[in-house]
Design brief:
Number of strands: 12
Number of helices: 10
Order of helices and strands: HHHEEHEHEHEEEEHEHEHEEH
CATH architecture of the largest domain: 3-Layer(aba) Sandwich
CATH topology of the largest domain: D-Maltodextrin-Binding Protein, domain 2
Structural class: alpha/beta
């Protein structure tokens, strides 16, 4: 059904006049008559009768008039909602964020809610690999994880930060006082790593494999403060990103940046490749570009806010 024809019909019935409807719609009377005849042909029934200079609805015309008003009202509401979404006045966004990354996002959330108070934002905490699975399955539009991801997989990624990985140990550790520590120096050291489902652990295990080293993992935990506590107790060497270590009570503990190879905590956003990103998602990415700091090298995608 032609919505324009329906609009012309509803206006004609409302004003009970072809002439007044044409004036109201800023078209000719012949155009109004033609569109209503087209609507009658499509529905297979007469919708209007003329009584003198008045245009009155038939029984079926009254039905079309009432339903037509509802349809046109819905169309106006739809248009308004679409415009509000495009202007970021309304909408909803859920972002998946791993627990070890969430501390980076407090200023982002504040800036996002200040700038776009009409958007509903919720954060779903899950491990990096779990976030990747949720985005791949379509349960989340956007998420954050540790890079790199599988370049041949279904996900697109954009990095927003790169931070060194530090070793944390007791103050009397053999390497205490050194600013850097090679991966080879950890060959026989008991290691304290994040839980196995963490993307950082995946990155660390791959680095050890590439170096031909079999790591001796003494313990794992999903809580980074517990990893530091175990390191302080002498249970092993914790391997954690610099932003996390800086927020922990590590005074008096030995810390050193991993080198040869230099390992970095690469954090980025992920979404399904070639899938439409909502206005809210693009707004979130734009805010992250503004607020988050860190080296930006070789982003493999660009999203226009």
């Amino acid at each position: 059904m032609d919505v324009r024809a329906l609009r012309y019909f509803v206006e004609t019935v409302r004003l009970a006049s072809f002439t007044q409807a044409a004036n109201s719609l800023f078209v000719t009377q012949s155009t109004v008559s033609k569109m209503i005849r087209q609507l009658e042909t499509e529905l297979g029934t007469q919708l209007l009768i003329r009584q003198g200079h008045r245009a009155l609805p038939t029984d079926t015309g009254r039905i079309v008039y009432e339903r037509g008003r509802q349809i046109l009202a819905s169309m106006r509401a739809l248009d308004g909602e679409v415009r509000e979404a495009a202007d970021l006045q309304r909408g909803r966004l859920e972002v998946g964020i791993p627990p070890m990354i969430n501390l980076l996002f407090a200023p982002v959330v504040k800036a996002f809610r200040t700038r776009w108070p009409g958007l509903q934002l919720s954060l779903r905490e899950a491990s990096g690999q779990a976030v990747e699975r949720l985005v791949s399955a379509g349960d989340l539009e956007l998420g954050a994880t540790i890079l790199p991801i599988d370049a041949q997989g279904p996900l697109e990624a954009k990095r927003f930060g790169s931070f060194p990985i530090l070793a944390v140990g007791q103050p009397d550790a053999p390497w205490a006082g050194r600013p850097t520590l090679t991966l080879a120096a950890l060959r026989d050291q008991p290691l304290l790593l994040p839980a196995e489902d963490f993307a950082l652990t995946r990155r660390l295990r791959q680095a050890f494999t590439d170096a031909g080293i079999t790591p001796h993992v003494a313990a794992q935990s999903a809580h980074w403060d517990f990893l530091v506590s175990m390191a302080a107790s002498g249970l092993g060497v914790a391997l954690l990103p610099d932003p996390l270590v800086r927020r922990m009570k590590t005074r008096g503990l030995a810390t050193a940046r991993l080198v040869r190879p230099a390992l970095h905590w690469e954090v980025g956003h992920i979404w399904m490749r070639d899938r439409y990103l909502s206005y809210a998602a693009r707004a979130w990415l734009a805010i992250c570009d503004e607020v988050l700091t860190g080296p930006r090298v070789g982003d493999n995608s660009r999203v226009n806010p």
